[in-house]
Amino acid sequence: MANMEVSDIVTHGAALMQPGETKSTRPIRRIAVGIATSGRPAILHQTLELLARQSRPADEILVCPAKPADIGAETSVAFPSLRVVRSEPGLPAQRNAILAASDADVLAFFDDDFFAHPGYLAEVEALFHTHPDIVMATGTVIADGILGPGLSPADGHRLLAAATAPAAERIDDVHNGYGCNMSVRMAPVREASLVFDETLPLYGWLEDLDFSRRLAPSGRIVRSTRLLGVHLGNKSGRSSGVRLGYSQVANPLYMVRKGTLARGRAFRQIGRNLAANIVRTLKPEPWVDRRGRLVGNLKGVADALSGQIDPRRILKL
Fold it and tell me: Which of 126, 236, 286, 299 shows the smallest number of beta carbons within 10 Å?
């Protein structure tokens, strides 16, 4: 795991085991939010503003920036309870720094451009308290800008204002959590010494799926219709097209070898991405580097055929 430095982290006595209490019966006392951020200080500020309006406030908010400039000075002043965690750049490494720093019972990982509904954390608390067999919960994304050019913060605020959680909650078992909003019960994470795999560097393509499948033996992974939010899908701070294209091939194959992704699922995913990049290179979307992704895909395929495939090779591309 990458070297980490934790600053301004406090230990809270309320999180310690009480007499007669076991990890399996321990109630949900503390909920934390962890945000790994890169290159979006203005959007991060708005994300934190929304977190400050939660009907059930977070007991701690841990933000891990890829570099110091990713958190503006005005943000530190506006949110004095914010805890800043330091690590090497890269989504898995940054999330691992947050895992190591938190003493919460439930840790909600949010992307820095995920706008949470005001009742989100209250619903997380109720869900994990009512269902002790749930170890991970992901929410219902009202709108996801990752599927297009991205949503503006104004779009996010408008969509949130119009959203209402359904009166009757539906909880569906799912294969994995969605990394933009993914809450985990920390007791089984600590028991199994689980961390995000830093062999999936930088943007960490599929790191959420890999972590989910390693946590799955401990309990249920679910999606709730009452955990609402908007993912802006902002395009700044992301990996180059070539690097992402290589990861689209290398990361699934690596996960097949380690046993967190079925071979058929991996090949279908690689095939879909390769086909999309081939077809759309002819008329690419302005917000996607299709040519770069295709070049990365082809480099990945060539390395796979020669036996040199490794997710970390993107660091040299």
Answer: 286
Name the residue among 92, 139, 86 with its Cα closest to residue 114: 139
Closest CA to 182 of 98, 273, 87: 98
With the CA atoms of 74, 76, 79 and 85 taken in that order, what torsion angle do they form, in degrees rounded to the nearest 10?
150
pLDDT digits (tens, 9 = 90+) for 111-128: 999 999 999 999 999 999
Q: What are φ and ψ of residue 307, in 5° steps?
A: 80, 15
198 three-state secondary structure = coil
Name beta bridge partners: 140. 228
For residue 233, give every residue at least 6 positions away whose Cβ sits within 8 Å of its Cβ, in sequence order, or none.
113, 144, 145, 146, 147, 148, 150, 151
Q: In the beta sheet, which residues pair with residue 190?
A: none
β partners of residue 185: 106
Domains of the chain with CATH codes = 4-231 (3.90.550.10), 241-316 (no CATH)
pLDDT tens, residue by residue, 154-199: 999 999 999 999 999 999 999 999 999 999 999 999 999 999 999 9
- What CA–CA distance (Å, rounded) separates 29 from 16? 10
Q: Return the higher-pLDDT residue of 3 and 238.
A: 238
Instruction: Give me 140's structure tokens.
Output: 């219902």
